[in-house]
Amino acid sequence: MKLTKLSDIRRQELRRAAVTVMQREGAAATTLEKVATEAGASKGIVLHYFRDKQDLFEQAMREANADLRDRVVRRLRLAETPPQRLWAIVEENLGAEVFRPPHGHAWLSLCAEAPRAPRLARLQRVFHSRMHSNMMSALTPLLPRDEAEALALTLSALIDGLWVRLGLGDRSVTHEIALDLARRLVARHLPGVEVISRDF
Fold first, then answer.
1. Tell me, what CATH number does 106's domain have?
2. Whole-prediction pTM
3. pLDDT, tens digit, 9 for 90 and up, residues 22-51
4. Residue 2, in any domain of the structure
């Protein structure tokens, strides 16, 4: 995303400061004052750009989802086969750059807010719908539609579960283990199909 205005840059700084505080303290303990301090600003500046804490959380989640979407899209453009498309989606959701404890803590904190925050819940639904659509695009050339639907749901549930474990502080779940579990699941449903990533 190209930022051309000072206000856009300031909003991005505040969104990233909010994520940093959530990574450290969780969403419930994140306040506008703490975000302002993290960003080197005042609470008034935060309220100038965001209506309230929920608005700030929503915009932070939008940015995180947009970053992941863009990463997946770039990988999908380079994929040459349906298995490569599927594995590009998996790797971008569980890869070393994103599947890290601080990110897991922030993600889990935001998910915990979703039942009480309709806008956050809607963003989560959009995220899951996009992941399902991308997976179905990769799986329908490989499986009957009902089996593709089942595998897409199972694989996305595995990814969600691994992120929950990461967010809860389970240090045994590394990105290498997460990718291996996903690879085993895909191999069980698609025997003989290679899911090792090409060098993108």
1. 1.10.357.10
2. 0.86
3. 889 888 889 999 999 999 999 999 999 999
4. no
